[in-house]
Design brief:
Length: 525
């Protein structure tokens, strides 16, 4: 087989040809998304900026000071005292050479940065195109935030960096940036090589600090998520917004049930690899928690694991085994499912000892076996490892609560909802139960009203108990009727239902069972 043509000539030696802007965008997208540039964020920013300016017809303005300011974020730059731009230009040329010698060897369009210049040269060569591999991840580009007001630039830079860092901690995402260049329009946005672009504006006044952030889907130009936050400066009291707000923004964008994965799921995206498909199926399960979604996730994860044993996928598959038990596995299947879940979790930890999701699987198997203390330890360890992950916090909080630490579990759940209010409402069932055993019936009704889990008892059951305690008998029986449709024998022995699933002290169990007294005489005529 003949080797790919070598890129060993200067740009001026190539045949000149007209290169359409769309082709330049496509070529640059491939470079920015390559493995060669994945560990070189400054090279990505440098290249994105100079090509954007080239496309905008401003290549003649590309000088050392302009690159320093707009590509490298150096607002104060003196070429007589610093060689930063020249050094970075050399690194970019080296990175481009490596790219075209390996990943980009079949590229039809070549982007070069001639020695001694900052304007790129775009040339065409027409080797046969190699098919692009299916992607494993969703790509999100973070642009440098705009800033207005005294001190806003410092806050905005720290916040933007923190958001990008936290997004990078979520599995299934590829994060580019923060990029110093802010392209205009859908075509220019594609220069960042991402499906989603996150932009923001930090505004300060004498009394307040504000943030507005938006996530845009590049292909459609549609804003898929927007958040606005404002805080009085006096309320900061030494706290860091790059910790406080970055966690909330990243949680809603990058979580397994965050806007990026929900958007991809809603668009029925089939362009990714089997690993990508498995992640989306797992998101669907987290959103729905139905028998069908559990089965679909199991099949997708089995297909993905056949291509390689990744810790992330092993932990997900273990969680699905636990979910299959929750869906009502028979007594014979139950222990097989739990043993499979435990085996997968330990295999995941052998590959990645800091995998929080694997500890959650172990916590789930211990919970199902009523090993309450062990379940709590595994859940607490997961929180230590991934306090930035809403899905981890939700699952861990649930296990901690039902293991008997109701206060600690609910605090953990509430932190998860703070980071990602978009998370499915099923986790509110645990908070509703915690309110019932503490005597807060109004709080229980508020929490249970947020629970929508078709085919599960939790929502209508906790609404029925809270409504009855508050004196709304007719409404309570309407909810209880839904419970009895799912399990006609439920009222025969509700104590067994609860004690088989959670740990209570005597007083907690008594308060809970007292809620059933209004149902003892049967429904109203």
């Amino acid at each position: 087989m003949p080797s790919a043509p070598a890129w060993d000539v200067e740009p001026d030696q190539l045949e000149p040809a007209t290169v359409a802007p769309e082709e330049v965008v496509e070529a640059l997208t491939a470079v920015l998304g390559s493995d060669t540039f994945s560990t070189a964020p400054r090279c990505r920013d440098f290249l994105a900026y100079i090509v954007t300016e080239h496309l905008a017809g401003r290549a003649d303005r590309l000088g050392e000071h302009a690159v320093a300011r707009h590509a490298l974020g150096r607002s104060e730059y003196d070429a007589r005292l610093s060689s930063t731009v020249r050094v970075q230009a050399t690194r970019l040329r080296t990175a481009l050479q490596r790219y075209y010698e390996a990943e980009g060897r079949g590229s039809a369009i070549r982007i070069c940065l001639p020695t001694g210049r900052y304007a790129p040269t775009i040339t065409r060569r027409d080797p046969p195109r190699e098919p692009s591999p299916a992607h494993d991840t969703l790509a999100v580009a973070v642009l440098r935030f705009g800033c207005t007001g005294s001190g806003a630039e410092l806050i905005g830079t720290a916040l933007c960096d923190a958001i990008a860092h936290r997004l990078g901690e979520f599995p299934g995402l590829t994060v580019t940036g923060p990029a110093a260049v802010a392209p205009e329009g859908a075509v220019a946005a594609r220069l960042l090589g991402a499906r989603f672009v996150l932009e923001g504006m930090v505004t300060t006044t004498e009394d307040t600090v504000g943030l507005e952030a938006t996530l845009t889907e590049v292909s459609s130009g549609e804003i898929t998520w927007r958040v606005t936050k404002r805080l009085a400066r006096a309320a900061l009291a030494g706290s860091r917004l790059d910790d406080r707000w970055a966690a909330a923004v990243a949680g809603q964008v990058g979580d397994a049930t965050g806007v990026t994965f929900r958007r991809a799921l809603a668009c029925d995206d089939h362009d990714g690899s089997v690993v990508y498909a498995a992640r989306l199926a797992y998101t669907d399960y987290l959103m729905k928690q139905t028998a069908d979604s559990v089965s679909a996730a199991a099949a997708a994860l089995d297909t993905a694991l056949a291509t390689g044993r990744r810790a992330e996928l092993l932990a997900m598959r273990g969680a699905i085994h636990n979910a299959e038990v929750n869906q009502g596995a028979t007594s014979g299947q139950r222990e097989r499912e739990l043993s499979s879940a435990e085996t997968l979790a330990r295999e995941a930890l052998a590959l990645d000892p800091a995998n929080a999701s694997a500890y959650l699987v172990l916590g789930g198997t211990a919970w199902q076996r009523r090993e309450w203390d062990l379940a709590h330890r595994h859940a607490a360890r997961a929180v230590e490892l991934a306090p930035w992950s809403p899905t981890v916090l939700m699952s861990a909080g649930t296990v901690m609560a039902v293991a008997g630490d109701w206060d600690g579990g609910v605090r953990t759940l509430r932190e998860g909802f703070r980071l990602n209010p978009l998370h499915p409402g099923s986790a509110h069932a645990v908070a509703a139960l915690a309110c019932l055993i503490s005597g807060d019936d109004a709080g229980a009704l508020a929490e249970a009203s947020l629970v929508q889990a078709p085919g599960q008892l939790w929502g209508p059951l906790y609404r029925a108990l809270a409504l009855a305690a508050l004196g709304f008998s007719d409404q309570a029986w309407t909810e209880m009727a839904q419970v009895l449709e799912i399990d006609p024998t439920f009222l025969d022995d509700p104590a067994s239902y609860f004690t088989s699933r959670a740990r209570f002290d005597t007083a907690e169990l008594d308060r809970l069972l007292n809620h059933f007294e209004p149902f003892g005489a049967g429904p109203p005529l």
